Fold this protein.
Amino acid sequence: MDPHTAAPVLHLLSLAGITVFAVSGALAAARQRLDIIAAGFFAIVTATGGGTVRDLLIAAPVFWMKDAVPIVICIMVAGAVWLVPLTRWPTRALDWFDAAGLAAFAVYGTAKALGTGASPLSAVAMGVVTACLGGIIRDMVAGIPSIMLRNELYVTAALAAGLIFVVLLHAGVPQAWASVVSAAIGFALRGAGIVWKLALPRHPG
């Protein structure tokens, strides 16, 4: 599914996911007191990492190689974020931007995989990869504990968003509504993890 030919809501989710993930990447670089070039690099790898792996796995053209818009968005966002003093950012701003990107990309990634003929379960897996991998790469490059290691709803929120999207589509819900509802639920679940530290039970050991 090419973003230019996707339904308007899915196209908006793609652009929103790129933008907010770029913010989280650039903010991670700023918190490490890195230069503006590093901020751009962090923005790009965070916003494109998951989608790149997804496209390679579903044998689709890598989205940012066909269209420079994602890279332009990342560069512009990185410059804007880098210029804002860290004291202006709320303590958990990175987490909230990451949550928005997670929800948007979980749905878009699932939809794109479905559009290539992937089975529903495989498509949901691609949604999770799209949603989570960029943040994981960001944390690894920044040398900070991965967001995956926190005992909060994270992958679960992406998985729920993708599953709900598929279920709603199969129930006959229009794609636009299915996209909005599933992304909202994914964001709400991740938000619950941020605010109330909600998580699935840990392994008993």
Remarks:
- The chain has a mean pLDDT of 95.
- DSSP finds eight helices and no strands in the chain.
- The two ends are 43 Å apart (CA to CA).
